[in-house]
Amino acid sequence: YDRTMWRWANVENMDDFFTRVYEYYQGKGLYCILLARLLNLLTLAFIIIFSTFLIGCINYSEITSHHTLAEVVEPQCLSRLSATKFLFLSIFIIWWCWQALRFITDLPMLREMHNFYTHLLLVPDQDMQTVSWQTVLDRIIDIRETNPNTNDIRLTEHDVASRIMRQENYLIALFNKDVLNITIPLPYLRDRYIFTKDLEWNLSFCLLGYVFDSRGQMKKRFLKEKNKHVLVAGLKRRFIFMGLLNLIFAPFIFGYLLLHFFFRYFEEYHKNPGEIGSRSYTPFAKWKFREFNELPHLFKNRISQSYEHANLYINQFPKEKTVLVARFVSFLAGSFAGVLALFTLFDSEALLNFEITSNGTVLFYLGITGTIFAVTRGMIPDENQIFQPERLLRQVVEHTHYLPAEWKHKLHTDQVRAEFCKLFDYKVGIFIQELTSVVFAPLVLCLSLPNSADQIVDFFREFTVHVNGLGYVCSFAQFDFERHGNVKYGVQGATVDDEYYLSKQGKMEKSFLNFKANNPKWMPNDMAGSMYLSRLADIN
Prior knowledge:
It is globular and about 80 Å long. The chain has helices spanning 2-9, 14-26, 30-56, 69-72, 83-120, 133-146, 157-164, 166-176, 197-211, 228-248, 250-271, 283-289, 296-304, 307-316, 320-346, 350-353, 362-378, 389-400, 414-423, 427-448, 453-462, 481-484, 507-518, 527-539; strands spanning 279-281, 355-357, 360-361, 424-426, 464-467, 471-474.
């Protein structure tokens, strides 16, 4: 206990400490984290070994003339790999070794965090899967109040969230203000944006790694306008450098994505073919929906509540032609599958031995027709559903907090449905975007994002404030109503006329209310925030 208290009292980098506290909470404790990371390493090793075996160790031309695996496996196949395959294998092995090394070096920090939760917060590992983040926060604040020897720092729910999300808050603001140019710089595609996990990682590396130092604090040179030209030039170079690097490693990234998707989702889609038509929010949508100081688990909980209504909304729209064709195909596939199933009941050996076409057994066609039947049945809506798209989309908006002005009074239209589908896309479509981003990401990094460098540098300078005991933070995330209060969203006495200094769609005001709802005990420090809460309470 004493050793752990001493470490807590002498923490130097509070941003890093609270980030590790939150990641430990997210990981559900020491043993869950160790198991998850170990299994992740084993999964990567399996992908590397199994894909190498399939690509380099089997003579596929001999399969038709042999009947056992041993007869078609190439002896000493690793020594016969081509230079390209060997290069792929070497890079993946180096990457795996790097992940394994990180796992080993993180063990002492995980042990330290385990002691912090167990001895100071009194949350044993067996309770980590059920304890709430609010309970963890309350106990951290209690330690500060009951132990005068602890760190003399600001410590409220808002301060902790601001430290954990210091960098992410800027990204949320950049997406809200549409500062980032992520359009595809090609003819006929210039109006289409693309944002994938690959681009998200590149953006974080290029931007956040440039603006913030190793301690997670903003570099002070970004706050001085005289440094603007040098900073803009440096940011452009980072974008272009990463674009070229992505171009060089494109084949490796593409190969990894393809293998990972195949091994991860094949069994799921094989067991439940209807999942092929399931949808999810795109990475771009998630950054658009996320709010200031909203921790990942709270955001996930909020968005998850919208999925049911989002799917119902999509299925509301007439697609009579598709439904008619789906019913017809479903009838044909179901008829064939039914006849084949009955046939096998009378002669069980026919399942494997009877060929309907050359090399096409009953089992093969049962699998094909069964899959087609499941997919087409999933495309046919419930005949008893009531057509009410406006009500359903408003229920979605209650959770996403996203309703562009151009959508108002048009919620029943196909135009809004099409725009919503760009945010709530098929999972297969999102994966295809990830694959195409291997080609488009270098173009966006080299040609599109450099055009935003000027506005990005201005944004960090103009939307940063210093808070005593906390450091430099995004002014939107500080809930600065005097600088950014919008009278359209109920902020009394707001004097800001320039929309440049206002968040779009009332993002700051919505974030403020959402943060208060998630942290009922928290009270704002400034008068403007308190008055805003009081006014809303009076209205309600």
